[in-house]
Amino acid sequence: MIESKRDELAALALRVREHIVRLSTDGGCFTGASLSCADLLVYLYADCLNVRPDNLTDPTRDYLFLSKGHDVPALYGTFVELGFLDKARLAQHLSTDDHIYWHPNRHVPGVEFHSGSLGHLPSVALGVAMDCRMRGQDNKVIVITGDGELNEGTVWEALLVASAHQVNNLTLVVDRNQFQANVATEDLIPLEPLAPKFEAFGCEVRRIDGHDFAQLEDAFSALPFSQTKPSVIICDTVRGRGLPSIEARADRWFCNFSAEEVEELLRELHSQEATTLTSETLTVR
Amino acid sequence: MTYEELIKETALADDRLVVMTAENRALIRNLPAVLGPRFIDTGITEQTLIGAAAGLALRGRIPVVHALATFLTLRAFEFIRTDVGIGQLPVKLSGFVPGFLSDGNGPTHQAIEDVSLMRGIPGMTVFAPADEADMLAMLPAIWASPAPAYVRINTRPATYEHAPFEMGKAEIVAEGTDVTILTYGMLFEQTLVARELLQAQGKSVGLVNLRSLKPIDEAALLDVVRRGSLIVTVEDHFITGGLYSILAEVLLRNQLTARVLPLALEERWYRPGRLSAVLEHEGFTGQHIARRIAEALGEGNASFAARPILENQFAE
């Protein structure tokens, strides 16, 4: 990836993180889980997928399904920055006058399907991928799940079926931020070794640093990984990425900060250089 | 015409139709060869089946989805409610062996809360044909509607010549002054017998085949209520949430009351066996229904002859 593009994506991701922080007050939102997938969503919408505000009804567009629906702030922040969503609507967060609440819904342009109940969208995305293939279209169909979400049997059931039907235009992406809602995944329902599990379910798997735009580009531009199998990309990420004060903390899934704390976090966000986020911050606290 | 022939004909004329199944192929065995990729068998995965159907519907398809009624409505309930219901997608659910039709399978397979569950989902429509002819008459309208739908599949041969189907309308088989039977699904056949037995003893017996439980033909129900005689609801469903409940809701909504005898399954699953044995044991043969109604009319000494009951064919 050329440096200028990487800088551009990083700048975009920073603005998305600002939206996430600003939404983390007055009722709050799922701050930690949003920050972990902000880079992934920015990369996919800004640089990878053929989906734009002006082609949302084009059946040949690419599809992104956000199955871990609680990272609405990252999704809507990305939508605002890329012109899908009017920024003024974010001010309506948790107002019953609009539909900007804790989980995605189709009242927001760009949201392909509502989510919130975990383990649903792998199968919905499977149906969409099957139809694209039936029509001879080569749309990418991406579904993003959390890692805690992998506790749900229906994720695996959908992969069994996708694998049986050789649905190679379906890609499941795991935001592997190491946390369930309240505890570290490995302390509750251990997932590792994760890649071999997906391989055993008939998928072609890659594992990357989900905050590294060059690695994201390498992986996503190689899709489909196989002509006969669904693809899986495990993105190793950090819950709360970008804000060291809340990074990798079990108690920073959902956050509801005071106005003063938000200002402090925004200062913290801007004081971070990408290079200071090292493997140290990847260590689960 | 059979169920399979109707799907085939409809699908060949409309490429939006996709046939899906969780490996329940009893009624659709010949469709893979005809429909190719538009026949999708997801294996024994009711939840994935519904999720994928929602995805196909998002892309403009009309999935007709098959599974045993109990696993479809219970195992996949949240997928139906959340993906199909919230999405208001035109997914058409075909539930096999609902109610007494799962005869020998046992309580795991008894879909006797399906009407209650499905009608509780906003926007979902619910249908229960009396027999194969009744079902074939209603399916084209159900599949053509933009609404999600649940159909209690019933392929038993008709013993009555039905009127044409009209969406949201019940079939008024007969009007009566002593009693009116309200029913739906496979028990229609037995209520027809019960009516005949009671009529032979001089009773004037009305009979309504509801056909559609949602939308419900409220006007037809109110007509029956205003007649003022005994009303009997007959259903192979738990007493909670089915026709008896629907009637109660209609009565309250209209600030009316009525004398109602509910014949339903009260707080228990039914004893499994061959269909004739189940109906006999549970008191739902035409003979038993006639006897139970006569008792409610204060004529407990009346006796009615038994009629042979056509057994069910095994359907996986």
From TrEMBL, chain A:
Domain Transketolase N-terminal: 29-269
Residue ranges crossing the lipid bilayer per the database entry: none
Needed cofactors: thiamine diphosphate
Gene3D superfamilies given in the database record: 3.40.50.970
UniProt key word Hydrolase: no
Keywords, in A-Z order: Thiamine pyrophosphate
Keyword Hydrolase: no
InterPro entries: THDP-binding, Transketolase_N
Family per similarity comment: Belongs to the transketolase family.
Identification of the protein by name: Transketolase
Lineage: Bacteria, Pseudomonadati, Bacteroidota, Cytophagia, Cytophagales
UniProtKB/TrEMBL annotation, chain B:
Pfam families: Transket_pyr, Transketolase_C
Enzyme class, spelled out: transferase
SUPFAM superfamilies membership: Thiamin diphosphate-binding fold (THDP-binding) (SSF52518), TK C-terminal domain-like (SSF52922)
UniProt cofactor(s): Mg(2+)
EC number(s) on file: 2.2.1.7
Matches recorded under Gene3D superfamilies: 3.40.50.920, 3.40.50.970
SMART domains: Transket_pyr
UniProt cross-references to InterPro entries, sorted A to Z: Dxylulose-5-P_synthase, THDP-binding, Transketo_C/PFOR_II, Transketolase-like_Pyr-bd, Transketolase_C
Record keywords: Isoprene biosynthesis, Magnesium, Metal-binding, Thiamine biosynthesis, Thiamine pyrophosphate, Transferase
Magnesium in keyword set: yes
Transketolase-like pyrimidine-binding domain sequence ranges: 1-162
Ribosomal protein listed as a keyword: no
Family named by the database record: Belongs to the transketolase family. DXPS subfamily.
Oligomer and partners: Homodimer.
Protein name listed in UniProt: 1-deoxy-D-xylulose-5-phosphate synthase
Species this protein is from: Hymenobacter jeongseonensis
